[in-house]
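Field: sequence (string)
Field: structure_tokens (string)

Example rows 1 and 2, in order.
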Amino acid sequence: MKTLGLTLGKFAPLHKGHQFMFDTALQEVDELIVVIYETKVMTVPLHIRASWIRKLYPTVRVIEAWDGPDGYSNDREHEIREEQYILGLLKGEQVTHFYSSEFYGEHMSIALGAVDRRVDEDRKLVPISATMIRCDPYKYREFISDIVYRDLITKVVFVGAMSTGKSTITEALARRYQTTFASEYGRDYWTEHQVDRRIGLAAFDEIAVGHLEREEQALLEANRYLFVDTNAITTYMFALDYHGQAPELLTRIALENAQRYDLFFLCDDDIPYDDTWDRSGDQKRHVFHKQIIADLKERRIPYITLRGSLEDRIGIVEEVLARFKPYDNYFGES
């Protein structure tokens, strides 16, 4: 007889305690179903939370319960609603084992006619809860998969022309928020590989990939925020400036940038120009600044302009971050 396991929850967020339960179930049953509920306890959408499970456990059948009962309760009316909802999802399919680490394991297993499998109910083997992680993901980093953790970090990118203060504010904010930052990979690459202040077209693909790798490394060590100096869109603009075209991979990565970052800040060209050997002059900076704005508008990417002193700019960013909720409507409508 085929054994079929079932577990359910919000997985907001998914953590190593949940994974221990999944791993236990997969050792004991032939197939596992995970029902994941919509919830208001965190702003990460249901389909993203479901994608964590699908990526980590490709053999698990994940059911997104968009209209499932809200919350948990030992009130019998609520229990009946949940039992009827789950039985409706199963459409007559017989579950043999119900997995949980909560009190509701009793009534659900009875309703399903399944074995009541409680896994680490006292949280001794994996001492963590989703509530603890929501309060401070960085503190409990060891209990969160990389796939999950990267989606809990607010990714903030600073774009703009050369000598507009991107590097300075990126590093200053990382210190202020006690987190990591991703420096501009392209500048390091250019310094090492340029010949007569030029690099080849194919090099821009290498820059785009190298910058993403640098970001990913910093992202997995970030504390709530990751501050990023420049992105593939700026690299794309430099490719057009150097060669009149951009290579295919860079073009694709630049297109994906609108979804990669939570917030875009444009550093204005209102600060004094730092005329170093690797730059092309203040007039070029002003032109490039206009071109970057035009490109952001063409891509329909909302951005916030930073002007004035470093402290003025930091103040604007702090005000935005204080109001910003990841995956939420920035303008306050839920």
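Row 2 begins here:
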Amino acid sequence: MNTNFTDTIAAVSSGTARAGVAVLRISGSNAKPIVDKLFSKPLKPRIAAYGELYTTEGVLLDNVLALYFPAPHSYTGEDIAEIHTHGSPAVVSAALRAIFQSGARQARAGEFTKRAFLNGKLDLIQAEAVADLIDAETEQAAINAASQLSGAISEELTAVYDEITDLLAEFYAVIDYPDEEIEEDKLNDIAEVLRRNSGKLASVLATFERGRIVKNGVSAVLLGKPNVGKSSLLNALVGYDRAIVTSTPGTTRDTVEEKAILGGVLLRLLDTAGVRETNDAIERFGVERSERALADTDLVFAVLDGSNMTTGEDAHILSLAERSGKPVIKLLNKSDLPQITDIPGALPVSAKTLEGFDALAALITELFAAGDVTAKTSLLSNERQYDLVRRAKEALESATVITSASAEALDDAEHALNHLAQALGGKVTDDVT
């Protein structure tokens, strides 16, 4: 479906759940005329007005607050009006219907932010940060997305972009006069600029693993033989009975996925089928899936039953976990019962009493600490951005071998500019040619 960006659009910006207040946003050239038609008082820029909202038939609908932000000083760069109604779904629906009848159309998903990007209010990194901020599942993820939205990463990449642009402009000036040679000292200065900016991009890239964990969380597999309490641990971590728990070994025959926050870290937990030898074809398939899950995980919880003697199956579990090459946390579950076994380095926990969970949280925080995330220092967390910044860095590294001001010698530096421009959502300027 084609989208006309000259249309005036409207949508509920506060979600659809019943609430005390709902916010309806209108963007486009007809935003103010629409509100003038439905609202009882005249609007002044950036000043909230309290009055009555009417339907197009003149029926009083609600007492509301209304605001008006004239272009270009608004989120989208267009005229924006907001109506703050009571959060009844019936009121919101009727208010939207009146707005649509007055000349707006339903905004599509992400269209307000897309208009902000197209109108130069946000670059592409900031626009993607809006979605990350909305989807954030932890405080750290929200802080990181907010810092990206404020321009923390964009500023770093733009600084590199600008310096390389200036360097290329100087190169092209020399190429216009081919009889002039570049002195060796100047070539060394050029190589140093390229190396320095390659290092800046390397510093940005170095934050990606931490940023990925902050944004997406840590995938963690609960691995153990049947009946050691893996499902009970999952239920305790997520805070409700997500997995079926019985005293019958082999109850879990497929991976069960759920999310939990422990130590400020988002865990994407996979409760797997108990690993053991079995003749049951369905259970065997579940065991194989459990073993394959180790390849895609960030963390392995090797779960053993501290109230029973260890067996060869337990040894196999520990061996599988260690061979995965992933961080392994050994858990001796059922610490609320008399303990029979002891495993060096294992943490006693109880899914029943939550004993050991504070120590477990501290351990996870230590393993996957994101560090300080502020509006000044942000973590790269987007795969698209990471790939383009990586390519730009590699292009600058190649460009450091430049020994003359030939047109061919500029290609790598130009490639770096193009990758950075794509990351930011712009195009390489004509200033360098």
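free_text_note (row 2): DSSP finds 14 helices and twelve strands in the chain.
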